[in-house]
């Protein structure tokens, strides 16, 4: 293809993809009088930054933020710990049924969540966990197939001689993991953390199904309540939309090279 | 210090051996994978079996539970118009979303793979919408699609088209939903981009030496070499299409006139609005069967169109390549 055409297409598509984001940011900054105009104004004449703080107080968003941070932190730590242990178990041991079990790990990725959703709801209901944050982070402490697969693939690339040297120095299996393997696992662990933080921060259906009280809401659930709420204006909705998108965007910019590399390594079977 | 350290290390080494004989060593791998085994039993296998069981019951969340055999499945097919309606909506959505999703993601990946400057910036622009939450995405698009004040209808009015009220128009709401979903295709694009980077450059060189133009190269080199990636993305897209729920709940609520009443939403409402747990479980299992069947058919067909380089005796080829390089050096 000719270069000028490529640039033209790249710029055109970028504008197309960026336009809705840009539109939501400028809407968040508009004053009431400029909101419902046709033709619409791209850039507000006065930038009303107070929209953000006003919108934040319509609902107890501080509380929602706290809930979201708790769930995201606990579930991310859980994934990191459990998936590392499990991946190490699959990568570095020979045991009966290993290949079959690993096949099962991969097969669980195929199961749609709708099939297990109802029994899980009943299970959490039985445990008295409905309307608590527990259903949103406890399962993360037992690993997830995709992350286990990703970490196992990485451990397999580490030379076994390292393990053997450590064994001669008297380290047991756990010591090898803690002192040899984990220090080398920076990039894939960052990738797992980034994916989990984004998934958890952005999750909507989990909180929707398992939470009832407003005091337990997460940010996405709080934002979704704006829909159909009387007297909430578009600039408030867009203000919250922008605010709650900042953390995932920040994490993305920080970890961009890990994400691009990580998808390159594991996306294709 | 050094002494105590070596002593404990010695003790460890000494105590490890007999332990292993007693079987502790054999249990070690199971201890490491225990979290997954436990989670699998409690959060996946158990619920999977339980959901199959309750699909044969009339199972309200409170009140009497009755075994009704295939009753749920029977009434699903015979006297529930919403079942057919929602299945039709999801199939139509999938038929639009899957091909466009693949085409858009592949198109963008090819653009990014042209050795231009600023690739990282463009890649970021295409991927950004995939980073934000589905709720944020739905909020943004409901404003973009707004009939009276939306930016989309503004652009259409510039070229003299009176745009519809997208989300409240039975003809357009599903299409609007497809477009909004395509906006979040980023990870698929990255998978394609990685696949494109894996295609050896010399294939293109020899193709152009043989006189193949850009279009011919695309169909004779890019598509065959990329076909395993296309297969992977095809299956992922099909599964994603069947699970689409967030957008339906937040953009249209299934309306207008159930035009966007997705199967996943039908299932969700049966469970958490009408509390018909057994019926909803039957819905879910039926969807699982459809997805499995589609996946199986795609895999079956892939034998005809997916080209695995590995099956073409890759190793001798590699040797030749490195041999050639050695000569030029």
UniProtKB/TrEMBL annotation, chain A:
<keyword id="KW-1133">Transmembrane helix</keyword>
<keyword id="KW-0813">Transport</keyword>
<protein>
    <submittedName>
        <fullName>Sn-glycerol-3-phosphate transport system permease protein UgpE</fullName>
    </submittedName>
</protein>
<dbReference type="Pfam" id="PF00528">
    <property type="entry name" value="BPD_transp_1"/>
</dbReference>
<feature type="transmembrane region" description="Helical">
    <location>
        <begin position="100"/>
        <end position="118"/>
    </location>
</feature>
<keyword id="KW-0472">Membrane</keyword>
<keyword id="KW-1003">Cell membrane</keyword>
<feature type="transmembrane region" description="Helical">
    <location>
        <begin position="176"/>
        <end position="198"/>
    </location>
</feature>
<comment type="similarity">
    <text>Belongs to the binding-protein-dependent transport system permease family.</text>
</comment>
<feature type="transmembrane region" description="Helical">
    <location>
        <begin position="69"/>
        <end position="88"/>
    </location>
</feature>
<keyword id="KW-0812">Transmembrane</keyword>
<dbReference type="InterPro" id="IPR035906">
    <property type="entry name" value="MetI-like_sf"/>
</dbReference>
<feature type="domain" description="ABC transmembrane type-1">
    <location>
        <begin position="65"/>
        <end position="255"/>
    </location>
</feature>
<dbReference type="InterPro" id="IPR000515">
    <property type="entry name" value="MetI-like"/>
</dbReference>
<feature type="transmembrane region" description="Helical">
    <location>
        <begin position="236"/>
        <end position="255"/>
    </location>
</feature>
<feature type="transmembrane region" description="Helical">
    <location>
        <begin position="138"/>
        <end position="155"/>
    </location>
</feature>
From TrEMBL, chain B:
<feature type="transmembrane region" description="Helical">
    <location>
        <begin position="27"/>
        <end position="57"/>
    </location>
</feature>
<keyword id="KW-1133">Transmembrane helix</keyword>
<feature type="transmembrane region" description="Helical">
    <location>
        <begin position="174"/>
        <end position="194"/>
    </location>
</feature>
<keyword id="KW-1003">Cell membrane</keyword>
<feature type="transmembrane region" description="Helical">
    <location>
        <begin position="91"/>
        <end position="112"/>
    </location>
</feature>
<dbReference type="Pfam" id="PF00528">
    <property type="entry name" value="BPD_transp_1"/>
</dbReference>
<keyword id="KW-0813">Transport</keyword>
<dbReference type="InterPro" id="IPR035906">
    <property type="entry name" value="MetI-like_sf"/>
</dbReference>
<dbReference type="InterPro" id="IPR000515">
    <property type="entry name" value="MetI-like"/>
</dbReference>
<feature type="transmembrane region" description="Helical">
    <location>
        <begin position="214"/>
        <end position="235"/>
    </location>
</feature>
<keyword id="KW-0472">Membrane</keyword>
<feature type="transmembrane region" description="Helical">
    <location>
        <begin position="124"/>
        <end position="145"/>
    </location>
</feature>
<keyword id="KW-0812">Transmembrane</keyword>
<comment type="similarity">
    <text>Belongs to the binding-protein-dependent transport system permease family.</text>
</comment>
<feature type="domain" description="ABC transmembrane type-1">
    <location>
        <begin position="87"/>
        <end position="298"/>
    </location>
</feature>
<feature type="transmembrane region" description="Helical">
    <location>
        <begin position="284"/>
        <end position="308"/>
    </location>
</feature>
<protein>
    <submittedName>
        <fullName>Sugar ABC transporter permease</fullName>
    </submittedName>
</protein>
<feature type="transmembrane region" description="Helical">
    <location>
        <begin position="247"/>
        <end position="264"/>
    </location>
</feature>
<dbReference type="InterPro" id="IPR051393">
    <property type="entry name" value="ABC_transporter_permease"/>
</dbReference>
